[in-house]
Amino acid sequence: MLMMLSSLSSSQAATGFPFAFMTIDAEKAAARKYDYIVVGGGTAGCPLAATLSTKYSVLLLERGGSPYGVPEIENADAFGKPLDETDNYTSIAQTFISEEGVSNARARVLGGGTAINAGFYSRAGSEYVRNVGWDEGLVEESYEWVEKQNAFKPYQLSPWSLAIRDGLLEAGVLPYNGYTLDHVDGTKISASTFDSKGKRHTAADLLRSANPDNIVVLLNATVSRILFNSPAQEAKPRASGVEFMDRHGRSYQAFLNETSSSSSSEVILTAGALGSPQLLLLSGIGPSEHLKEFNIPLVLDAPMVGQRVQDNPRASVNWLSHQFYTIQVVGILIASQNYIESLSTYVNGTLSFNKNNVYREVIFEKLAFPLSRGHLRLRTTDPRDNPSVRYNYYSNPLDLHRCMHGVRVIDKLLNSPSLHRFNANSTHDFNFTGQPLPKNMSDDAAVAQICRDTLNTIWHFHGGCEVGYVVNQKYQVNGVEGLRIVDASTFTNGPGTNPQATTMMLGRYVAMKILQGWTE
Q1: Beta-carbon neighbour count of residue 126 at 10 Å?
Q2: Buried b vs exposed e over 220-252: b needs ≥16 C-beta within 10 Å?
Q3: Which residues pair with 223 in a beta bridge?
Q4: What span, in angstroms and rounded, lies between the C-alpha atoms of 220 and 242?
Q5: What gap in Å lies between CA 2 and CA 470, rounded to an integer?
């Protein structure tokens, strides 16, 4: 059992530290050893660490701060504000720009992407689960565990969501599936991580299920590299701990418990689809020629680290309004498996709804299962810096063709009777601030140009440490021991309309497998 680092005062709880095991005291956190060191307190890391702590001692390292008591995180109608107000080292979100010039963002806060996203909660499809090879019974149990704490059925649809629902049906996105968490073709209503009062519930809330005597959550701790024991002749390198820096740049090391059996003493990366491949590279695991460029000592020549990365491209139309709507409805196209959704993002005003606030309304299509892939490489050896990433959007011509199909569905939606009625009966107006759709939707060149000109991200990037290339089916890193990766970097394809449900599920799922003896 771990001893509490300190007692939690009421003032600490009020300022964003609701759990006694949360701390920013790096020296105390590094003063003991742990059965598991989890790097990244995000969408997968929080449920994974909470579950492991029911049996083992766990150190969870998060490079950002607490999401609690932060209005721009907790308030639904502040969605988008953290994405616009970023800096290099301290902001809630960290902007990165792909080599193609597409602006994107990664989370830097406990709870990860669940603290800055649009909140839509929907599971992966059953075919996806079968293709990955997961235990379907444990997947169901793990989803339910997450949903009891973090998924909320809309108590009613907003007028805009009603119009979107009916408009999708009129546009031919059939059948209507009502409310369901399942990934099914047609139009459906799904859950949200925002409750009925508009308060966000992040993956950090899943830490309530942790054993408080068995876990330490260290905030503002940026891991710079994984430490390895010097292997005996012909033996694989074994992870022994991590090196990290606190918010002041002071360096520390945290180590695994050597008294534990080898099967219950691991470093687990849950740093996300940029952070995990970046950290492998910084630790000497990756393409040897690339590591040589930065004088990083080679631990393992692993050419596929950082390869086959993907980001689902988004094509959209947008306009400004004084209304805010959360995502409640999605259209899943049968022919192409594109997803049609609508969201609002904060532009300016107060951090709670005000009739004078300005929001950007967006109707978009997310291209599911793109065929185009890219790569990730280091820019610097500073773990706080973003790596270089190229997604090669639309490099496969079939991706562009499928995008064009989605754009044509958006046009049908905009011209549906339901959206026309909504527009006529409200102050809503489609005065597009970006590029409008072409008047002649049969013009393939013009429709394709919309895909190129409105190319953007939906923040669902994945890959770089893919199962079958970098990790095995148990998420263990190939070629070394005592190291796993459990996050979206392991995905071959993005799961469902929004990956947060499945990524939280995966954290719980892998931890349960480990507790059940899923070892080397």
Answers
A1: 13
A2: bbbbbbbbbeeeeeeebbbbbbbbbbbbeeeeb
A3: 244
A4: 15
A5: 33
**Cα–Cα distance for residue pair 256/266, rounded to 1 Å:** 7
Pairing of strands 374-377, 307-309: antiparallel
Q: With DSSP H G I counted as helix, E B as strand and the rest as coil, what are the percentages for the chain, rounded to 5?
A: 30, 25, 45
Question: How much is the pLDDT for 153?
Answer: 97
Return the residue matching tokens 């709507």.
325
The predicted structure's pLDDT at residue 185: 96
The pLDDT score that the predictor gives to residue 104 is: 97
**How far apart (Å, rounded) are the C-alpha atoms in residues 45 and 48?**
5
Tell me if residue 94 falls in helix, strand or coil: strand
C-beta atoms surrounding 301 within 10 Å? 14
114's tokens: 């669940």
Residue with structure tokens 């599920």? 505
pLDDT given for residue 9 in this prediction: 37
- In this prediction the pTM is 0.95
**Dist. CA 280–CA 284, nearest whole Å:** 6
What pLDDT score does 518 carry? 82
Q: What is the largest CA-CA distance in the chain?
A: 76
Region at 494 (left for phi over 0; alpha for psi -120 to 50; beta for the rest): beta
pLDDT at 259: 66
The mean of the pLDDT values for the chain is 93
State the Cα angle at 105 between 148 and 355, rounded to 5°: 70
pLDDT at 52: 98
φ and ψ at residue 23, rounded to 5 degrees: -155, 160
Instruction: Quote the CA–CA distance of 62 and 203 in Å, as a whole number.
Output: 13
Q: Which two tokens stand for residue 260?
A: 């534990």
Position 10, amino acid: S
> What does each C-alpha distance from 450 to 55, 279, 290, 343, 411 come to in angstroms?
53, 36, 36, 19, 12
Just list the catalytic residues.
460
Distance CA 292, CA 324 (A): 50
Paired tokens of 357: 């606030």
Give every residue of the chain whose pLDDT is below 50, as ranges. 1, 3-14, 520
**Alpha carbon distance 506, 510 (integer Å):** 6
Q: 489: Cβ–Cβ under 8 A, 6 or more apart, which residues?
A: 272, 273, 274, 275, 276, 277, 462, 463, 464, 465, 466
Q: Which DSSP string corresponds to 274-314? A: HHHHHHHHHTTEE-HHHHHHTTPPPSEE-TTTTEEEB--EE
DSSP code per residue over 16-62:
T--STTEE--HHHHTTSEESEEEE--STTHHHHHHHHTTTS-EEEE-
Q: Which amino acid would we find at residue 290? A: H
